Give the backbone structure.
Amino acid sequence: MKVAYSIAFLSLSAFSVSAQSTAWGQCAFSINWTGPTTCVAGTTCTVINAYYYQCIPGSPSSSTTSTTSSKPVTSTTSPSGTCAPNSPPASAGTLRFAGVNIAGFDFGCNGDGNCEASAAYPPLTQYYGADGAGQMTHFVNDDGYNVFRLPVGWQFLTGNQPTGTLVDANFAEYDALVQACLVTGASCIIDIHNYARYGGKIIGQGGPSNDIFASLWANIAAKYATNPKIIFGVMNEPHDVPDINLWAGSVQAAVTAIRNAGAKTQLILLPGNNWTSAATFVSNGSADALNKVINPDGTKTNLIFDVHKYLDSDNSGTSAECVTNNIAEAWAPLAQWLRCHGRQAFNTETGGGNTASCALYICQQVAFQKANSDVILGYVGWAAGNFYPTYPLGETPTKVGTTWTDTSLVTACLAPK
Ligand SMILES: *[C@@H]1O[C@H](CO)[C@@H](O)[C@H](O)[C@H]1NC(C)=O
Ligand SMILES: *[C@@H]1O[C@H](CO)[C@@H](O)[C@H](O)[C@H]1NC(C)=O
Ligand SMILES: *[C@@H]1O[C@H](CO)[C@@H](O)[C@H](O)[C@H]1NC(C)=O
């Protein structure tokens, strides 16, 4: 989630009302659908769920999938430029992860990396917050979710000091949320929600040194070194980082520190520039720069690219209306690049309002991600935890008696079951 900024209205090429739906467009709707009901050649109108049908590239009786699946790549300039058009393997179709952000410890964090420690608001009843533990238990048991992202400000963990030294009392509060996540059996993403900055200055580029950032991660990783369910999210939404290669060096310092602290096999999420936008991950140079980050043993095993994408008109995640499924602009070119380079990405923030437009487009996005599950590990919705259910992008369930009720977008598109 980032502060709003203005860009041009994104085109809706993947979903326009015409005689035939384009690849990934909608081709029927169970209720009141008046748009096209047939698909362009090379795609098949496929039932996604009770809410919509979608033109999926490929068909049982055809082998012409490359025509449609390669289209987004040719419309995108990649710095690498050499990836041949590619398609998901037949085994793709099931995402490894689906989850929700459990927000609260990040409250007070601004895009300039100012996160006032006292503004952090633990989403736990014992600290007078929402019942984050109960929410996660519900999400796992009733919805089939299996991952939660637990954002926290650097300043909260270190008591407003630009160091790597954890304040025990504060870390104990955050760890209570991590443990509440782990007890559900889900995987738990530790997310430092600082936008590549501390107090307005960029890590390794005028702000805290890479050594300080590495010591922060060494100290956190040491706490969870032996737990395979912990995922290390190196940094939330870097943006306006002038030198992406220097930033990749900061990410490398964190990766080396996490591995050397004993967390040798867990997933580590590597974030690119421009608010981790999935749409510009390749074109803006983040992919090439972060593709050089390695484990101490020289491999890239379990180093996963972290990408975000919202569906509102300025990709800010601040509007309750969605205008795109992001497939042509973001997910298709990204999937091509990832497959070509043997890498994977995890969409750790996405979401929209509890509106008909978001139900349409997010269902389409999730369907595409599932179809490309060989290179896209999954998605994490924004957000529950301490957000009220009335927050425009709220995925916070409400509890009456012993029964939890989900928001409509969770029910329509995001919950795995
Ligand atoms: C379908 O259309 C009917 C008649 O216009 C309307 O009453 C109903 O609410 C619509 N259903 C949905 C789910 O939009
Ligand atoms: C950042 O990404 C958005 C789409 O997510 C794009 O419209 C915008 O142009 C990008 N900005 C830069 C500076 O690359
Ligand atoms: C990435 O975006 C920045 C603006 O945020 C721009 O200055 C830079 O040239 C872009 N890099 C590439 C490789 O496109």
About this structure: The first helix runs from residue 65 to 69. The pocket of 2-acetamido-2-deoxy-beta-D-glucopyranose (ligand 3) is lined by residues 240, 284-285 (CB under 6 Å).
